[in-house]
Amino acid sequence: MNLSNHINIAPFSLERKDKRHFLISELNELMIFHQNNSREYYNILKSYGILDKKYNKLEDFPYLPVRIFKDYELKSCNDADIIKTLTSSGTTSQKVSKIYIDKETSSLQTKVLVKITQDFLGKKRLPMLIIDTESVFKNPKEFSARGAGIMGLSTFGRDHTYALNHDMSINFDAITDFLNKYRNEKVFIFGFTYMIWKYFYTPLKDSRIKFDLSAAILMHSGGWKKLIHESVDNRTFKDKFKKLFNLEHIHNFYGMVEQVGSIYIECEQDHLHASIFSDIIIRDTMSLQPLNHLHEGLVETVSVLPKSYPGHSLLTEDLGTILGEDDCPCGRKGKYFTISGRLPQAEIRGCSDVYEFIQTPNR
Question: Domains of the chain, with CATH numbers?
Answer without folding.
Answer: 3-359 (3.40.50.12780)
